[in-house]
Amino acid sequence: MGTKGRRFAADIAGPAAISIGMIVLWEVIVRALHIRSIILPPPSEIIMAMVDRRDLLLTHLWPSLYLTVLGFALSVVGGVAVAILITYSAALRKGFYPIIIVSQVIPKISIAPLFIVWFGTGTMSSLLLAFLIAFFPMTINSALGFQSIDEDIARMARTFMASDWQVFWKIRMPNALPYIFSGMKISITLAIIGVIVSEFVASQEGIGYLIKLAGGLLDTPLMMAAITVLSIAGLILYGLIAHFERRVVYWQSSSDISGSGGG
After folding, report:
1. Do 92 and 7 lie in a common domain?
2. Which residues constitute the domain of residue 155?
3. Is the confidence at residue 65, as pLDDT, over 90?
4. Whether 113 contacts 171, CB under 8 Å
5. pLDDT at position 255, please?
6. How does residue 162 score in pLDDT terms, banded at 50, 70 and 90?
7. Do 176 and 86 touch, CB atoms closer than 8 A?
8. Whole-number pLDDT of residue 7
9. Residues 6+ apart with CB under 8 A from 198
10. Which of 15, 34, 213, 257 has the most CB atoms within 10 Å of its CB?
């Protein structure tokens, strides 16, 4: 096993051991106290529900994941674009920041019914809610990265006849990448929340709808199985972004990246 392999094994050994220990403890406590499955099923029963109803879970997982990824992608494109605009324009910065902040102060659960009225119970309302929730951290983190460069370096580049585009692409963008990825890791989790909230309010498909349906039927094992599948999918998406970050921002250490961006 190479150095990277050993480092990866060391990184996951601790969290994996703690997770397995908590699952075992959960199983033992539920069995020992004879807690009914309708209140808290043991992990073994949740796993059994995941296996027995995998077709149902996968059927409802796909639309939730599709809208999550699409809403996240739109938030990345939109957030970075707005961050660039407010970096280069003080007037736009003063105008956009209050709007962005107000959009985050309003509870998203209160916006979901309004989106249903405007866009119906289809995928559009879920997509827009996911985008709206994920947009804020992308914009703020990206803007912070673009604006945190050493201005002396930028002035030096201009003295060597570098254009504004070259300064942006060679100096601002590399400096902002750790911040952008930090925002992406926050945004992907928030996009999932946006989709699930919308599916709770009004939807006929998706993991959020399945959780609500299972709750109405008092089918707690199915409800917990749906939550588990959603959590695993979220971890995979987060892990993919973290892996891509290590590939792209190869010049910074893990501690540097995790400490940047205010994530």
Report:
1. no
2. 41-258
3. yes
4. no
5. 43
6. low
7. no
8. 59
9. 112, 115, 116, 125, 126, 129, 130, 208
10. 257
